[in-house]
């Protein structure tokens, strides 16, 4: 019998004991949607059958559906349009191609067993009363008829994505997302009812979808899931059937302008639909292969990546929309297939939980697989946003602080954690998180629990400090003194001080030229710690956090460099004379590099 390491057994036991804590398990939902693309009226006309099994543990007398396109309706006072005014001082006018163009998702009828139900619509939310309460563990099936009027985006408004407009038609390319009435989530906190806003986009139950799309026969269609059937009709149209299991949304595109590239990568079908970006496939395939290795196999059988003309780079389960096609954009959207599509989350209350890992993943791919500089990490230009990462999307007061907290700090926290735990432990924990929460909505607490379990460390202090506060880290070198010794060596003394309110272990490295004289790790505890170094060579440089692992806003005072004149003086023996005379060269705060 092979010996088994006790530590490994303990880890397995811990993993087994880690109960799934995903928030939004309750409802079991399935959708069967039949929709026809009307290219004359530029709209999607559909009916859907929604079956809901109530796992909430309580009787539901009302149901709520999200109707995102209503956010864009002209002459409507929607939360989204108020956001546009407030955050961008903009209106939707520039997005539409003309005055007669509009956007909406109109529900024409809702029936249960042939009986019409009353409903009301406010902003992007539909509310309906069930004829009788839906008891726990019972199911209800609704039939909903709807029309999604698509924006025809103005010629000059290339992507409209910066306005969070994700759907529409431009130059014969239809991008159809957030397009059908989708059941709102009832989780242990109750109904999660959020109007569509400029910031914070997704939260939905995982479920199975069958989508039948009727389009002109000349059109190429890309959609969430696998195409299972095609039927041509005498009127020149065709109906394509797509099936997707364990997804929390479906989106699609259609155009006769698409070229298609397709093959198998890491055991999955990769399909790109492109207009003029012929290298899109290679970029998608490369990042997809990297993530499959790094985070675990892709959760679905097919990923479709599409070059779109409306909506900007955007993620949906099983399909990503690509606008400009940069490495950053493509690798970001593909990474969302792991963090967002497979592992879902409440993007309204915990926006960072998919954007943080996605930004981190894309940066890691570019550094580790493409050999780009680690300076590309957003955290390198970090400025403390002054608002905790774990702030609901609706609580942000500017797009800038939203970006800094959610994307920059969100990814930076993961880079820091990787530095803290070590690459091997961190990577193993992220893999465990992916496996555990695939096809579920995870919470930040689920992520923390997984990292604590896998690392065997208490990480509450770390996550609390970096996610729940806006405490800043500001370490600095102080009182650096180099004394030449009679034997020709040097004694260097200095202090590392913490001028901020956050604390982290800090790498401290002394150099002579390019040669490392010594490395220390300061535990970061307390306000200041003294260091000293005996060396044969004269130190020329001392650095705090040389690998830039920390989220630190002020890095000017992390560097001490011997001034060339002093170094020259030392070389000429003047330093030795000065030291012998009992003088000490001291770097004061005044002559620190700023
Ligand atoms: Zn993103």
Task: Give structural attributes.
Immunoglobulin-like, disordered C terminus, elongated, alpha+beta, binds zinc ion, single chain, 594 residues, 11 helices, 2 domains
CATH architecture of the largest domain: Sandwich
Query: Which blocks of ≥5 consecutive residues have pLDDT under 50?
Result: 1-24, 573-594
Overall tally of structural domains: 2
Strand content: 25-35%
How far apart, in Å, are the first and last alpha carbons? 63 Å
Shape: elongated
CATH overall fold name of the largest domain = Immunoglobulin-like
Strand order of the largest sheet: 5-4-8-2-1-14-17-16
Structural class: alpha+beta
- The Rg value, from CA coordinates, equals 28 Å
Helix count from the secondary structure assignment: 11
The distinct ligands, each listed once, are: zinc ion
CATH class division of the largest domain: Mainly Beta
Task: Give an overview of the whole structure.
By secondary structure, the protein is an alpha+beta fold. The chain has two domains: 22-349, tricorn interacting facor f3 domain (Immunoglobulin-like, Sandwich), CATH 2.60.40; 475-571, Immunoglobulins (Immunoglobulin-like, Sandwich), CATH 2.60.40.10. It contains eleven helices and 33 strands. Strands 5-4-8-2-1-14-17-16 form an eight-stranded mixed beta sheet, with no helix packed on it. Strands 19-20-21-23-22 form a five-stranded mixed beta sheet, with helices on one face. A hairpin with a 4-residue loop joins β1 and β2 (43-53). α7 crosses α8. It starts with 5 loop residues before the first helix and ends in an 8-residue tail after the last strand. Residues 1-24 and 573-594 have low confidence and may be disordered. The structure holds zinc ion (ZN). The site of zinc ion (ZN) has 4 residues, from α5.
